Amino acid sequence: EAGVAQSPRYKIIEKRQSVAFWCNPISGHATLYWYQQILGQGPKLLIQFQNNGVVDDSQLPKDRFSAERLKGVDSTLKIQPAKLEDSAVYLCASSLVVNNSPLHFGNGTRLTVT
Amino acid sequence: KNQVEQSPQSLIILEGKNCTLQCNYTVSPFSNLRWYKQDTGRGPVSLTIMTFSENTKSNGRYTATLDADTKQSSLHITASQLSDSASYICVVSAGTNNNAGNMLTFGGGTRLMVKP
To answer: Residue ranges of chain B with pLDDT lower than 50?
Structure first.
């Protein structure tokens, strides 16, 4: 099966600029997640969707981050305006809506904010 | 507060040797525990998932154990290979509903380097 697709792989922007990341989950996976992974740390959940509805966005900095999954398939994550501390890898993952179902991760987008 | 602590933070071993990574958790109510392998520049890949009733699960040269009483898990790697060099992340799922993501607590990972 095709894996989780993410683009771009790398992005370098200046602080206060905006950036968007795209994710296409595995076909049939209703649940989609965006994680932020700072170098040397484990991933931190930003937002979780089930189909096109938000399940959890409690850790999403909503003053600058936004995400959508309009048709319940692919998703975009946007940062506007970016700060230096947003430099991280942004991982998208998807899973079936079944307990104990593993998460399938994309290879992430490495964002550098200068 | 749900927490997952992994040790050691980093580890260097020689090719062919065995090693064991540790994971301690305080997550309630416990649903399952997962080990992921993350190669540099890639997303994590699932190795094992264990529920409360399982105390060991293998995936090739990887064997995970779970002691739900002491809230500890270990990942044992046998006959290490250069390709085992990666970060290994312990993830614990809490709750009894089907929303796996918002109840997942990630450890900080153990960075393993296997040298020839």
So the answer is: 100-101
